[in-house]
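Q: What does the assembly look like in three dimensions?
Context provided by user:
Components: three
Sequences:
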Amino acid sequence: MQEKKSYLSEVFLFVVVAAFAAVPLLRPSSYQIMLASHILVWGLFAVAFNMLWGVTGMLSFGQALYFGLGGYGVGLMMKHLGEVWFLPGMITGLIAAAILAVLIGLLIIRVSGVFFTVLTLAFGQLAWQICFRWYHFTGGDDGIQNLIPPGILGNRIVYYYFTLALVAVSIWLLLRLSQSPMGVLLRCVRQNPNRVPFLGLSVRYSQLRIYVISSLFSALAGSLAAGVDNSIHTDMLYWTTSGEVILMSVLGGIGQFFGPFIGAAAIIVIQDVVGAKTEYWPLIIGLVMMVMVLVFPRGVVGEAQALRLWLKSSRRSDGG
Amino acid sequence: MQPVLELKNLNKAFGGLRVTNDVGFTVMPGDITAIIGPNGAGKTTLFNQITGHLVPDSGCVLFRGEDITGMAPQSIVAKGMGRAFQVTSIFPEETVLENVRMACLARRNEARRPFRNVSTFKQATDDAYAILESIGLAQYAERAAYELAHGDQKLLDIGIALGLQPTLLLLDEPTSGMSPDERQLTRDLIVRLWKEFNLTMVFIEHDMDTVFGIAQIVRVLHLGHLLAEGTPDEIRNNPEVITAYLGEEVQ
Amino acid sequence: MDLSFILVQLVSGLTMATLLFLVASGLTLIFGVGNVFNFAHGSFYMLGAYFAFQAVATLQTNFWVALLIAALGAGLLGMCAEFLFLRRIYGRTEEGGFQILLTYSFILVIDDIVKIIWGTEYKSLLRPAGLRGSVELGSITLPTYNVMIIVIGLAVVLLAWLILSRTRPGRIARATALDREMLSAMGVNVPLTMTLVFGIATALGGFAGALAAPLRSVTPGAGIEVIIDSLIVVVIGGMGNFWGAWLGALILGEVMAFAVAIVPEWASVVSYVVMVLTLIFKPEGLFAPRQTRTV
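A: Here is the predicted structure of the complete assembly.
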């Protein structure tokens, strides 16, 4: 049964990647490509975030820190050293994110529950403050513009496939992780952290590991976003960015691996349709979040699956 | 022969209350030891000090000759000490198989592998199925653990502990909350597992049929100190125990 | 750096600390008693400021009445929020996470509703007549209003202490934190207690917002800055601890006051540094009860 399940997930991933690969062929307008790129980047960010929350039970309100760090790794390198530093900037951002995640992780995994959430938020805001104030280095509130990737990556369509490839590989790696012994261990940490030490395994070490992994992929998403938007802004680091990725996960469903990706796609499409027409976007986000938490805590994918199971079982009981 | 477990002069106090008072005893390989005592005698607290959940104020715990006092639970467990809990402690959303397989993976040092699908870990999976057969839960392997009946969840808890192939197994009230029939089955099961897995066991129990039915050595805790120890027959006829413990129950 | 400079900063820090404490004490009260983390607490602070502004503008009331209206308004809204929404998720698995998300959604909704009603431009509230001057204290001159804030803050601390330790409702509120089930078995109406505590806490927040309004101009989004400052306070002091919040506010207030005077650009960063240092050396906060070893 389990083998079948994992095989299905990989087929689903393949179909999604194929669909995204077809976007430039069917709709070559830069608008459509932009939309698809945003879904990919935020989808990766949300899936990586959910490894922390949905899987391991660590609700971070500070993943914007790593998303922003990825973006600023690219942005700062290109601003100060020249545009050929795009790829080295990506790598630098990833390394910086990994180091920072280890350091901050060691500090904050010592507490759990609400305390953990509060501390992630505070560290995220600290990074935002520093970026905001350090005007001559980071550009402060102006952000950094004109980040055109060098060489062939400067072509919109090439960059789109570059993004798709990296996102697809990352999500595949995370999918494998979620079905590996480590993935099961992380779920065990969420369900019963008191039992895990009596398997001879450390809860803290598992938490630190997934915190670093999640942060690393968040940074990758951020660095890709810099090339998609050709600019970066302090908003990437702001706490509402963390809030948005949480909303995506809740909307899609935190209990399913692909839930957050679907949530990200939904939010980005809604934002595209509705956000442009209203200045009250936060109000909409807030109301959606409220409804999800109160009425559909399992998210769209989770509720759909529950409904399917319910239909199946009621049909079975009708028949037998 | 080297003892599996040795407690020397353990002391522990919470505030002013001495919950463990100069407790010391030795468990030899293959023993089945029961620890009994009225509520509040400090039995679970004693277990918690053995498994590292609590650090004793003074005294030491030796496991197979090694001083493990003050070590973290995960290090102690990794040395071969398994524990099942009074309040059932399982992973409710995982399948019954996954619960036990996690322990088998942990023992094989494969629990942190991040890439290969968990079901392709053949050895651990086989080990897990073997344990499920032994504890009689194989038919529920694919069920979520929370769907099991209470008694079966207790067995699963023991199954998780067995997955680590422990030398020493600590059971905290293995038959609590069970019906008399279930108790009989569990008693038989414990004895069978003891033979099958070559275990040394220490268990806490209130149910006297279980205590006198399977234990070779009974140790009585009363108000934190070791009141008496001996064979079931000796304990049954020990006047001190009768007044301090059994008498209390009779009244 | 002369003595009067230090004195002025000390008093200014004390004013800041008092306001911080008033907000953070509400946050810590709900957490300590109800085990609810109200992310939107800063929004009730912001609402308090707007309510006071509106009361003065439309009702032409004096400042003190406006203060009362602000506290009452924020408290009533807080009770509604608890009664209509938060109550529905108590006891759900992973309640903590959903509490944060629900109260986070309050922030977004309240922020935008404030924008719809009052617009985005700065609103300011005049200091009450009679408190616009300053007092001479030896060699230094202090604004009367700031001194009054400190006095009011001390009065609130005393009052809260009396209520919590000397009255039956106060003791019930403290006991609720210990054991909801036991209390309801004893015949205490736990849900009602929760709603009331929520009301008191948000009223404290609204009160602080109104009190601060003449010093800082009021804008939408103020709630977020405030909640983060209060978070730092409770992290320093130990979450859920009333006196810890007081100590945390004092430390943060004084550090901020000196930072603003010495490195104005980086003042807000300095406050995070204090928090990080606390975390490194005492992750549960300075005043947290000593926890037994958890694995």
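Follow-up: Chain B has a mean pLDDT of 85.
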